[in-house]
Specification:
Layout (H helix, E strand, L loop, with lengths): L15 H15 L2 E8 L5 E7 L2 E7 L3 E4 L6 E7 L23 E7 L5 E5 L20 E3 L3 E3 L16 E2 L3 E3 L8 E3 L2 E3 L45 E7 L1
Antiparallel strand pairs: 1-2, 3-14, 4-7, 5-6, 5-14, 6-11, 7-8, 8-9, 9-10, 12-13
Length: 243
């Protein structure tokens, strides 16, 4: 007896559509091929069919290049994230500097039946700001061909964090997290943390220290003093490939 029938109170209550749904679900979870009993043949034996579906492979891009469709892939889910901005450098006053904003994101399901390859552009992370309150660089825009894109984050100011980038063209478009403002307590200060993207964290702003670089997010702001801020992390694109 099929495993799909186990636990049923009576064979007469089993619906073919129920078993078919189970088979499709199993195939998607397994990312490959599943078999299901969808009835009985003329001899009373289970009639078996095969369903092929599910995730086949993934490709991750952290630098610009070309996506090439693998054999057997007909659809992709693309997640595009822009570059993070650099934080702001430290100043001679007790004002701690803000962190850089993270890149936005766009998520899109694409039918690639008629597509063999596509240009992938990864937005660069913005440079960290120099001491004396130097502004960090803005993050660059990432894109998957003409399908969808996401702008990079913006740098902040001496006191405030930068705004996040924005996704466009996707089925879902998201704004990256803004950078955090700096924190000053009595004579001690810490730069603000960089904003996080959906695929990476922002850099930390530390007390009495330089800011930390982001990982696909914004760079951390610098503490008051002759400290530089953290650089923003580069964008990233994740391509999930389905049969």
């Amino acid at each position: 007896m099929s495993n799909y029938l186990s636990g049923r109170t009576s064979l007469t209550t089993v619906q073919t559509s129920d078993i078919a749904d189970d088979a499709v679900t199993l195939a998607k979870l397994a990312g490959g091929t599943a078999s299901a009993n969808l009835g009985f043949d003329g001899s009373g034996n289970p009639a078996e069919t095969t369903v092929s579906a599910g995730l086949k492979s993934t490709q991750v891009f952290t630098s610009s290049g070309t996506w090439t469709k693998p054999a057997g892939v007909t659809k992709v889910k693309v997640t595009v994230v822009g570059g993070g901005a650099g934080g702001v450098g430290g100043t001679a006053t007790n004002n701690a500097s803000g962190g850089g904003g993270a890149g936005g994101a766009a998520i899109e399901f694409i039918d690639v039946t008629g597509t063999s390859s596509e240009t992938v552009t990864i937005g660069a992370g913005g440079a960290g700001g120099a001491s004396a309150g130097g502004a960090g660089g803005a993050g660059g825009t990432s894109s998957f061909g003409a399908f969808c894109s996401a702008t990079g984050g913006a740098t902040g100011t001496v006191s405030n964090g930068g705004t996040g980038g924005v996704g466009s063209g996707g089925d879902v478009n998201l704004t990256g997290e803004a950078g955090h403002g700096g924190d000053s307590v009595n004579s001690s200060s810490a730069g603000g943390n960089g904003g996080s993207s959906i695929l990476g964290g922002g850099g930390q702003g530390k007390y009495g220290s330089a800011g930390v670089a982001g990982s696909h997010g914004g760079g951390g702001g610098a503490a008051a003093g002759a400290f530089i801020s953290g650089a923003g992390g580069a964008g990233i694109i994740l391509v999930e490939e389905y049969a």
